[in-house]
């Protein structure tokens, strides 16, 4: 892209405050000269942290003042009505007004979803965006949606999720992404009415490379590229997976610390252990997309550290570069044309 990519960053939200966001932002612009970042939040705090940085601050980082913050526990509808001076609202407003191409926030998920839908709008036919993110798998790329935005869904919504996830996988370089529905079995007789009816819709859509059902124990094999489910099932699966990843990492660390000869073995296994830590770290896959919006919005984990927030910025940049919303709109238009 010849023009600069501009990303508005909600600098004040998240569990760890603006310091993590700002250090990640400084690193990010140093490695992505095609990107400009607009840090939105309390100007005095942000400027103070920028000034105290040991790394020279690029002119590609600018500050937009916002006086308020959406608390992590705040009711989304209350935030939507009364937090128009918040860093979250103002960051999204920069995207709505065309001053930024995408928005990244580590704040309250419900509030971010409500504000995003209000300011940026969904595509015609999309009632509510779906949360989607890349999953660590044995080989290739896998994306899962919905991860919590829509606890109950209709078959038509799962069909839309499948299309949007397929477009995202294609933008990541996957040719003819393989799409599957999360279910309790692979037989067509198994599953809820929602899953069975959705299976029929996905089977009939020639735009999709739909292969049927997938069970929970196959999520990380990389056999499919897009895993579709309702937000309740997806959120449980995601949080369980992150917990298991942390458990494995702690088990490995404790095992090697238990005996002197294992500590010695660590010296020889250090490269392998570093690789395992990278691959098992949930932060390496931080950055969930709100698919269905007309502009890119990326949700960072609330407790993201510097490396994890950096990854969320990477996801936002890729959304802009690959023109993911426009590609989703084309897929949805084609689906609507084919409907009777």
Structure characterization notes:
- This protein is α/β, with parallel strands linked by helices and 340 residues long.
- The chain has two domains: 1-129 and 292-325, Isopropylmalate Dehydrogenase; 132-283, Isopropylmalate Dehydrogenase, CATH 3.40.718.
- The chain is built from eleven helices and eleven strands.
- Helix 3 (76-82) packs across helix 5, helix 6 (155-171) packs across helix 7 (193-204) and helix 6 crosses helix 11.
- 44% of the residues are buried.
How far apart are the termini?
39 Å
Name of the level-1 CATH class of the largest domain? Alpha Beta
Q: What number of domains?
A: 2
CATH fold group of the largest domain? Isopropylmalate Dehydrogenase
Strand content: 15-25%
Topology (elements, then pairings):
Elements: E1 5-10, H1 18-31, E2 35-41, H2 43-51, E3 61-65, H3 76-82, H4 87-96, E4 102-105, H5 109-120, E5 130-135, E6 142-145, H6 155-171, E7 178-182, H7 193-204, E8 209-214, E9 226-228, H8 231-258, H9 260-280, E10 288-291, E11 297-299, H10 306-321, H11 324-338
Parallel strand pairs: 1-2, 1-4, 2-3, 4-11, 6-9, 7-8, 7-9
Antiparallel strand pairs: 5-6, 5-10, 10-11
């Amino acid at each position: 892209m010849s023009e600069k990519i501009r990303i508005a960053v909600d600098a004040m939200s998240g569990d760890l405050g603006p310091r993590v966001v700002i250090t990640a932002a400084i690193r990010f612009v140093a490695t992505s000269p095609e990107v400009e970042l607009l840090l939105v939040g309390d100007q005095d705090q942000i400027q103070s942290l920028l000034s105290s940085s040991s790394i020279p601050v690029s002119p590609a980082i600018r500050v937009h003042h916002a006086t308020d913050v959406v608390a992590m526990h705040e009711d989304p509808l209350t935030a939507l009505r009364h937090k128009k001076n918040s860093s979250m609202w103002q960051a999204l407003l920069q995207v709505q007004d065309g001053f930024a191409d995408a928005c990244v926030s580590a704040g309250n998920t419900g509030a971010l979803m409500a504000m995003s839908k209000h300011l940026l709008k969904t595509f015609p036919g999309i009632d509510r965006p779906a949360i989607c993110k890349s999953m660590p798998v044995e080989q290739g790329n896998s994306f899962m949606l919905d991860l919590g935005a829509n606890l109950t869904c209709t078959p038509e919504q799962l069909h839309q999720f499948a299309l949007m996830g397929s477009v995202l996988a294609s933008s990541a370089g996957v040719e003819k992404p393989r799409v599957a529905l999360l279910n309790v079995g692979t037989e067509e007789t198994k599953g809820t009415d929602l899953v069975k009816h959705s299976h029929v819709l996905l089977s009939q859509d020639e735009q999709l490379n739909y292969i049927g059902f997938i069970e929970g124990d196959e999520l990380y094999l990389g056999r499919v590229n897009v895993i579709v489910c309702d937000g309740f099932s997806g959120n449980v699966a995601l949080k369980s997976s992150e917990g298991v990843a942390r458990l494995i990492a702690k088990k490995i660390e404790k095992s090697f610390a238990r005996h002197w000869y294992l500590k010695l073995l660590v010296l020889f296994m250090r490269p392998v252990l570093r690789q395992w830590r990278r691959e098992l770290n949930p932060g390496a896959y931080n950055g969930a997309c709100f698919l269905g919006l007309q502009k890119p919005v990326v949700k960072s984990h609330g407790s993201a550290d510097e490396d994890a927030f950096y990854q969320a910025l990477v996801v936002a940049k890729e959304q802009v570069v690959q023109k993911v919303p426009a590609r989703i709109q084309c897929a949805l238009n084609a689906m609507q044309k084919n409907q009777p």
